[in-house]
Design brief:
The N terminus is likely disordered. It is elongated and about 45 Å long. The protein has an 8-stranded antiparallel barrel. It has one domain: Beta Barrel (Porin). The protein is mainly β. The protein has 1 helix and 10 strands.
Length: 161
């Protein structure tokens, strides 16, 4: 089902971002790089594949992945701003913004997407394991049309080093 992008969704996400950034204090992340498996579910096709998250500064990370599902291959890259949650060792929230390129089997066209994210990331104590879950709506553009998929979520497991 195609839906046009609503302006209220963008405004709500920006208000949440400003609120979280204003409330936080800066601390270092609990790992440098994590690689693992991501599952992207919700409205549309379920996608699964490898991904990597790397902190290039204490609160700033880049994430990239290649996901597969139902004749689709998605390549994505995202910037994430991360902040620890005070009193919850290893737990941090993040906001991100990135892009997707979606290739569909037997179709010559590619779909481009803009993907914001808001989620939680938890590094398990001294174990080299990190888990995460987030809301990842997608703004897709193709053939002069656009589509907004609001109910998209991802979760996964990473080994950290």
């Amino acid at each position: 089902m195609k839906t046009t992008w609503n302006n209220w969704a963008f405004k709500a996400m920006m208000c949440i971002a400003v609120l979280f950034i204003g409330m936080s204090s800066s601390k270092a992340q609990s790992y440098q790089t994590g690689a693992g498996l991501m599952i992207d579910v919700g409205e549309g096709v379920t996608l699964v594949g490898p991904h990597v998250k790397h902190f290039f500064a204490p609160n700033h990370a880049g994430e990239g992945g290649i996901l597969f599902g139902s004749g689709l291959t998605t390549v994505s890259a995202m910037y994430q701003y991360n902040q620890p949650i005070e009193g919850a060792e290893g737990l941090q929230w993040y906001l991100g913004l990135g892009a997707n390129v979606i290739f569909e089997k037997d179709v010559d066209d590619v779909v481009f997407g803009i993907v914001p994210a808001a989620g939680l990331d938890y590094k398990i104590g001294t174990a080299p394991i990190d888990i995460f879950a987030d809301w990842r709506p997608k703004f897709l553009m193709y053939d002069g049309e656009s589509e907004f998929l609001a109910s998209r979520f991802s979760f996964g497991l990473r080994f950290t080093f």
